[in-house]
Amino acid sequence: MNEQIRAREVRLVGPEGEQVGIVPLERALQLAADVDLDLVEVAPMARPPVCKLMDFGKFKYESALKAREARRNQQQTVIKEMKLRPKIDPHDYETKKGHVVRFLKAGDKVKVTIMFRGREQSRPELGYRLLRRLESEITDLGYVEAAPKQDGRNMIMVLAPHRAVKASAVAATASRGGPRDRAAEESAAPAGGATPVVGETAAAGETGPTADTSGQ
């Protein structure tokens, strides 16, 4: 018998969550076989271990769906960085502003850095005016979360997307549901450390009264 199932008795929980009581492991396996369900260890550290009668394949599928939904609803904060020069060329400015707009539309924050060189360090107002110009041109998408601040040879300002813009970006990402999410579903591990106890209710190709620790 596997080390995780040393106990000869388990506390059995029915498929609807009802408490069956403490029964011998062999009896629990037989009860699972009688109702064509799996015996799944849900609390291995309890004394005696707690096992539940369930459809383990359905359990894994529903756990993967819940994990995917949680990832969809999770709002991760990403900070992008855009570097500018005080005397930036107009065309370069428009290009970099376009990147800032794209980042904000994607729901990301943007750290805008003005880099001063040589004598430019004596003219901080040039960087300040450039940052204020950028702020005024993206007001429909974001706002200044951290006001312009001198940091050595650089001047830094942090922009953040408006709540509605970020919510729209999160919803758009969730609606796509790309292949990466589907792959994660298929390989998702069962929640709560649940382990199927292999015996008379074993899946195809599994034999013997041991505990399968693979999580499959």
TrEMBL record:
The keyword S-adenosyl-L-methionine does not apply. It is found in: Cytoplasm. The keyword Hydrolase does not apply. Keywords: Cytoplasm, Initiation factor, Protein biosynthesis. Residues 78-162 form the Translation initiation factor 3 C-terminal domain. InterPro entries: T_IF-3_C_sf (IPR036788), T_IF-3_N_sf (IPR036787), Translation_initiation_fac_3 (IPR001288), Translation_initiation_fac_3_C (IPR019815), Translation_initiation_fac_3_N (IPR019814). Residues 1-70 form the Translation initiation factor 3 N-terminal domain. Residues 186-216 have a biased composition (Low complexity). Residues 170-216 are annotated as: Disordered. One of its GO terms (molecular function) is translation initiation factor activity. SUPFAM superfamilies: Translation initiation factor IF3, C-terminal domain, Translation initiation factor IF3, N-terminal domain. Its main location: cytoplasm. Monomer. IF-3 binds to the 30S ribosomal subunit and shifts the equilibrium between 70S ribosomes and their 50S and 30S subunits in favor of the free subunits, thus enhancing the availability of 30S subunits on which protein synthesis initiation begins. Belongs to the IF-3 family. This is Translation initiation factor IF-3. It comes from Micromonospora humida. The lineage of its organism: Bacteria, Bacillati, Actinomycetota, Actinomycetes, Micromonosporales. The gene is infC.
